[in-house]
Amino acid sequence: MKKYFILFLFFSSLFLFITCNEDNSISSSPENKEISLEKSKWRLVTDSTIIEKIKKGKFKIDSSIVIGAFPCGVKDVYAWGPDHYEITNGKYLGILPQNFSQSSYSSYKNFYGFNQIIVGSTQHISWALNAGYTRDYLMGNVNFSPGSVDQLGYLKYYYLDEPIEHNGSVEGVRWLAQFIHEYYASSLLMLGSYKLPTDWYNILTGTTYGQLYSNILNNASNTRMMCDQYYDGTIFYGADQVPFWVAFKNYYGQSRVFTHWISGDIDGGEQNQFGYLLDAATNLGINNLWLFMGGSGNSSFIDWFCDVAHQKYWMNKYERRYCIEYRCSYSNPCDCDPTLPDGWYIYKVWDLGQVRLASR
Predict the structure, then answer these.
(1) What is the domain extent for residue 135?
(2) Residues 58 and 147 in one domain
């Protein structure tokens, strides 16, 4: 009896060695031969940003795939990951980048899908054009000097940030608008403001911000207003800016107010209002918004905004299907449970070449 027991232990150990050896990464089973053949047709992913997104949990595991037919220490997981976003028909979304570089302009255009973007130099314009933008969808950041316009050349929009709030004069803004009208006749001068039209500019003279900005609008047909207030301006800190949007529309006229700013940090990070603001814009007849990312620079707010824009039909999000090959990091690969995340590391990622519209 003892002899048979020893033989049993010997063959059991031999079986475990054969099935759990890490070098035995592809077994001779028909299922694994089929999987191996499929992988030879797929594209091996070398982009580290995709692997980082997998690690951050941005991929959706395909629950219809059953893990099986693999030796110890090896498992394949199929998942859908973000491929790109596209603006829906009739919508316009612009962005003030959190950083200015050739790669960021390409990412904002070709991955995130923003069809408008801010530029502040000829280098920025070059990066934007190389990414696929045209000058009809660029907004140049300018000051009161005509030279700040001329150095950028023709752009559809020029943006002057809060000129009256920063003690600029009505005459100075009108003069800049006249220069743009004379040399870039089809361009618009966009004026940012965080003041309600009824807010006092000078209570002693009875002058409001609305009166000063209306003076500009009424005497310069190529000027438009944009709200860059991210609260409602009351003591209830944290409320949204929609009352400002309504006040701008009613006071300045809808034809002079067709777009506003949304803040990544405040409207997303602090207040979680992306969805509410997109709905409000739609209800107000606004189909053009700009995302300000010049705050903390938290790039996750861009993903968050685009995902919400997809849910609200301002964007379409597309997903790509991947096969993620995992290996066990333990000395005994059989110690890794395929149903648990512990001990597994990403060995290779394969692009299956399948793209779909993400669900809403």
Answers:
(1) 89-302
(2) no
